[in-house]
Amino acid sequence: MQSSAKIKVTHILTDSNIGGAGRLLRYFLEKADLEHFEYSVILPEDAALIPEIEALGISVITAYGIADRSSAPEFQGFLTEKIKKLSPDILHTHSSRTGRFAGVEAKVPRIILTKHCSDMPSSKLMKFPFKQMLAKEWKKTLHGAIATDDSAADSIAAEALPREKIKVIYNGAPALREVSEAEKTTLKSELSIPDDAFVVGIFARVEKVKDHLTFIDAAQKCIERGLDKVYFLIVGDGSQIDTIRDAAEEYSDRIKICGFVNDIAPLMNLCNVNVNCSVGTETSNLALLEGMSLGVVPVVSDLAGNKRIAEGCGIVCTRGDSDAFADAIEELYRDEKKLSSLSLASKEKYFEKYTSKRMAREVEEYYLSLLK
């Protein structure tokens, strides 16, 4: 490759809706070095992310049959032809096994993936002959991998990719805009929240792994303890939304279910505390990072990624322990000095470690290392 030529990188993402991987890809592309890199993205037809990527001036190629499927072998040939036409130097896949095989068939010089979660492989895959088969597949279809946390790196290594081929790059997110006091007052009025309320939010897909029921239990305990100015926001949607509505119904005047919103900035600006109750595979939660950019204090479950993010600027609670979450919220509600100190620490830690600009530079440095 001539040193004057742009390095061509193609991403493959199979999500039809916009999840964490899609948001992360958009945040990366917003800060990408377009002077030295040329990016394209392969997405499923009608993927929700298409207009957001196109708005950045990045080429989007749609592929039939890959939506929400890591493995779609019947469409491998079709995908191979798409990749051949793009002729990338690097193929960067996100949960697309078929994409990796198509990249091999298209003779892409370097193929990598990003591991966005910390789920460990099944015990079956760790036994003969499956582990040996998996190791052979990964050797054939991967030149390296990015893990969004050390726990995600451990997961990839357990699946037989050599640890030295895994680069840990923590997620980054853009700083949320600060809204005016007038806009905050208007929004609180629309939500029937007093202007002097202490607001606690959870910003997450409404799925079991995010454990909203523990959040609601903690909210109820705070209300029953007489924390009269505490109000709670549930921001997001998902398969458990009806269950959550039913669980929160008794306290609907204090627990506000906001549903999915495209722009979380106004609601995040209302919050003093940002809760993550996840019990599953969290690595570098984007909503926590976005809240920290505004100084919103994280209160999190004790997953490895959550603990790393909250260290020195938040409170860590045992997974599923609603009493612990209620205690943490109450402590911050009653101790203004501690709340203020952690808020400042959250903002400082975000700008030091978790900006999307930092993430983009580290990813592109990794691309360059692969091509040496």
Structural description of this entry:
- The chain has helices at 20-30, 50-54, 76-86, 97-105, 130-141, 150-158, 181-190, 212-224, 241-248, 265-270, 286-293, 304-310, 322-334, 336-353, 356-370; strands at residues 7-13, 37-44, 59-63, 90-94, 110-115, 144-147, 166-168, 198-203, 230-235, 255-259, 273-276, 297-301, 315-317.
- By secondary structure, the protein is of the alpha/beta class.
- α8 crosses α13 (322-334).
- The mean pLDDT is 94.
Give the topology, please:
Blueprint: E1 7-13, H1 20-30, E2 37-44, H2 50-54, E3 59-63, H3 76-86, E4 90-94, H4 97-105, E5 110-115, H5 130-141, E6 144-147, H6 150-158, E7 166-168, H7 181-190, E8 198-203, H8 212-224, E9 230-235, H9 241-248, E10 255-259, H10 265-270, E11 273-276, H11 286-293, E12 297-301, H12 304-310, E13 315-317, H13 322-334, H14 336-353, H15 356-370
Parallel strand pairs: 1-2, 1-4, 2-3, 4-5, 5-6, 6-7, 8-9, 8-11, 9-10, 11-12, 12-13
Helix pairs in contact: 1-15, 3-4, 8-13, 11-14
Q: Kindly state the percentage of residues in helix.
A: 40-55%
Query: What is the number of beta strands?
Result: 13
Mean pLDDT across residues: 94
Physical arrangement of strands within the biggest beta sheet? 3-2-1-4-5-6-7
Report the CATH architecture of the largest domain: 3-Layer(aba) Sandwich
The CATH H-level superfamily of the largest domain is Glycogen Phosphorylase B
Net shape: globular
The largest β sheet comes out as:
7 strands, parallel
Number of domains: 2
Secondary-structure content class: alpha/beta
Beta-sheet strand percentage? 15-25%
- Count every helix, treating DSSP H or I runs of 4 or more residues as helices: 15
Q: Could you say what the CATH topology of the largest domain is called?
A: Rossmann fold
Computed Rg: 22 Å
What is the string of helix and strand elements?
Answer: EHEHEHEHEHEHEHEHEHEHEHEHEHHH
The CATH class of the largest domain: Alpha Beta
